[in-house]
Task: inverse folding
């Protein structure tokens, strides 16, 4: 993966008014929102997007957590035998994945969002936020 400069990501981070209609936080962006696509015109965000939506990302995450994942007894699929599928959910977060018929298929997702003070009270997110 090509180096991604954090300061470049921060420099081009969307303004509050660029975020779309929220579905979990106060404002969110995800593919294929118009402003998310505009964000991808910045090389740093395009690199991050392409990396997150890659098998290389999945492999690195699995490698990083290999010991912990291999001790889990209740995983929904075999982490040593899976298929990476490039698919964009968009704002229609799919609840339809049939784990019985689609075993060992893994998707990635990148959402950008922000939450304001007392977000827990507004949207019911986990208490530690």
Result:
């Amino acid at each position: 993966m090509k180096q991604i400069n954090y300061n470049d990501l921060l420099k081009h981070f969307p303004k509050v008014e660029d975020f779309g209609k929220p579905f979990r936080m106060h404002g969110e962006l995800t593919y294929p929102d118009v402003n998310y696509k505009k964000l991808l015109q910045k090389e740093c965000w395009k690199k991050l997007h392409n990396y997150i939506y890659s098998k290389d990302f999945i492999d690195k995450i699995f490698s990083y957590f290999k010991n912990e994942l291999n001790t889990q007894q209740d995983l929904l699929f075999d982490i040593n035998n899976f298929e990476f599928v490039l698919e964009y959910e968009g704002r229609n977060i799919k609840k339809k994945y049939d784990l019985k018929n689609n075993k060992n298929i893994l998707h990635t997702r990148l959402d950008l969002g922000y939450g304001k003070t007392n977000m827990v009270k507004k949207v019911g997110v986990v208490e530690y936020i």
